[in-house]
Amino acid sequence: MHQVREIQSDELRQKIILEQQAYTAYAAESDEEIDKALKKEKEALKEIEGLHAYGVFEGSQLIGSMSLLDFQMNIFGSYLPVGGLSDVAVDLLHKKRRVAKSLVDYYLEHYDRQGYALTALYAFRPDFYYQMGFGYAAKKDVYTVSPSAFPNFGEKSDLTYVSKDEEQMLLDCYHRYADKHHGVMKKVPFQYKRTFEKFGIKIVGVKKNGQLTGYAIFSFKKREINNSLSNNMTIHEFVYNDKDALQQLSTFFHSQKDQINRITFPTQDPWMHHFFSDPRDGTDEMLPFVYHQTNQSGVGFMYRIINVKRLFTQLSKHNFNNMTHTVTFKVNDTMYPANAGDVTVAFKNGKPTVVNGAKADTEITIDIADLTSLVLGVVGFNKLHLYGKTTVSNEDHVDTIDKLFFAKEQPITLTNF
Question: What topology is assigned to 3-116 in CATH?
Fold first, then answer.
């Protein structure tokens, strides 16, 4: 019988070995490497408040493990608690024995008991977690453009390197950005520790009046050609709090065109191709009829509502577009039945209130994964309905529900875990 509990300090080495076997692309090749990974694990558990290691045990044997993370995420302008899941690993001899399900079951119940309404993870297989009730977040686009594609605004006098002793300044800049953007999670200094430790990673920021208004974290990568003077660049994090910071950072990347061949730039801004002077990726690939290939795109981050009533209560101050309409959500949640059933929400001038027994203007039958993406503004209701993901009691109300949940900004994610 599976027992799920927090992993003790003297059991962490088992967790490290289990993860190394589960994620073979990063597998250690010696005891020394295991020791280094163990040291980093203990350091992270000590330094990151809200990080916890849990395992599935059969007797004293660890057969599965995971890390849980307590986050605060900006949801429509207010920070709400979100439970993160990462490092899910199962012993090779215990695969297909529902070990992973035991871990995820515990994860959902744990955060529900803690009063959370929302959870999140990076999916190793989006289809697998979609079936477990996790809804897709916004896609990430990765551009690979020429440095000259970054506009040259002719000004970068406030640019400076950001050093380790300016870590708090960097974090403050990030949190000013998080305060303004739906979906962004708060960070702690430890999350930048590895960045400052690696010499190959650089941080350039725009500093004005003693504070950073924007920054970019990037590194270089050698090209696979016989030319040591030509490299590529990868941007890992790009944050700007005003137009000036964006323009100065853009000018900086434009100025690298003498030695940089291509810059890889990840973004969740769906309009970024309007920013670049040339968004093409350099492959010269063409899509029918005449569409030039610009970027790679993917899904990976996923959210899940674990308590529908609680989430709408937590969002009581959010204005859902000044709409007045009462909706009964008939929620399907086979993975976590405690969250299934009817939830009636009265929206009055945009403000939601969970009500019991009220007559709804519209009844909507929907799976929890799709409801999660809808409420967070990832996808419009008219699209979900068109794709056969919902049924409604009155087809004439589809546009009304679409307007109710319209969000001008999809949630964006800058936190890796």
Answer: Aminopeptidase (3.40.630)
